[in-house]
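hi!! sorry for the late reply, been swamped w classes. u asked for the two structures so here they r. pasted raw, havent cleaned anything up. first the sequence of the first protein and right below it the tokens
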Amino acid sequence: MANYIRLPNGAYYEAPAGLDYSDAFRKAYKDYPEAFGASAPPTASKEPTLGGQTKEFFKGLVPGAIGLVEQAGTGISALLPEEQEKATQKYIKEVAATAKAPFAAAPGYEDTVGRKFGEAAGSIVPFLATGPFGLAGRAAGYGLGIGAGAGTQVEKSAAEGATEEQQTTATALGAVVGATEMFAPARILKRIAEPITAGATALVKRALIAGGEEAAQEAASQAAQNIITKGIYKPEQEIIEQVGESAAYGGAVGALAQGLLDLAIGRRAPIVKPTDEAKALQATEDAKAQEQLVAGQRREAAMERARNMPGFTGVTDPNVELLSAARDQREAEAAALEEARL
């Protein structure tokens, strides 16, 4: 397994095999003097390209997932006694740094959209991975979110120089905010089990819904963390800081996750084909409807004939009208015969 050492500028250096820590540190200084604050020969900066950002997107998936687990571990470690907490956090960071080092961003791509999108997409993977494990998995997902929310404040409050009491309060409140992290992934997992109507429109609609949910959750979570920061240990903190960016990346990640999962494992709504029995029943119903139509046409014709007969009384029932007209006709004929005899 490769060994990595952390340099003063925060970067990680892969030490050649066989070197102890001191020798590796000296070689890192020789190879990368700029990491130690020494001047380095100027290098021509490269503009990020579309291909480069696409590559960084995929490279960022793994560090994003590792970062989420690292943050959750950091938050959970706050429950330990102080000495054990510090030791545990140091161990977690070292392990995470070693795991992320092979996927470090290429120079000039650290803050590109492709890289950040990849890391954001990777951060949702641990939540989605809990789906196949039922209720236990969902509980683990909420635990991850709570730990990550607490971890955010553990790191941020320490970096801002908050007191121990302030750090404890901020961490507890951050854990509450973290509980919402599982909301959007849980909704995505729920929709996967629902049948999908055939057609691209249904897939796009589901992806947009998931994107909207994830965007709203990320924006609310970021704002809540900023409020905690402002209210406890950093009064100058802007509440809207990074809210828009979090919403944008969150929305894109939610839509992407829902779309890919629907295409890969989503259930399609079955296309119902009529059976022979159903076809026969439909034919019978069609025949009855046709008979009723013909009968109605006959009644209309009879009513029209009744209206044209002598002695029409204005009764609207064609059957009654026909009988009345026929009776009047017979009486008229009988009277004519009687007159002829006389």
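now the second protein. again sequence first, tokens right under
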Amino acid sequence: MDKSLGHEFIEIINNLRKLTHKHHHKNKIHSGEFMILGAIRGVIEDKREHHIEEPGIKVGELSELIHSTKPATSKMLKQVEEKGYIERVADKKDKRVVYIRLSDSGEIIMKDAMKRMGDFANRTIQRLGEEDTKELIRLMKKFYQALSEELNEKHTDNECHMNDESNINTKEHNDRKEI
């Protein structure tokens, strides 16, 4: 592969990251907060649609959903709770079970964020034009697929390598036991 093409690829990814970080302070909520509030909101909407009578989502379920550890999820929840965006609700039958749901303030901040995001998308699409936007979406889907495959291959390679090391260590251990 042409080194300049790889360099240009990394450079544009880095520039996009810098650009979003640079304008991050203009948002009322941080991207992590938006992500966790959006996940909570989405699960609650799904439960309502499927007539599941639960007042929110459990921390463990949320952790799985956002692919995060329980301690990291709890830390983020504490931050958004301090801002008044979520509330904790004890289960009526089992008080040990606690659900998380958006507060009225959380609902308002999410509606505002979704509106601003939609407006931003529309303005960007206007600048790019419909055809270029469709092409960008097609390429981003292809990029996502390639990245996903690459990361899964790396993960699988690491697991195989770890299994090889485990097998070697087990063989060495068995050899030592024979002596």
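hope this helps!! also noticed smth abt the second:
Confidence is low (pLDDT under 50) at residues 160-179.
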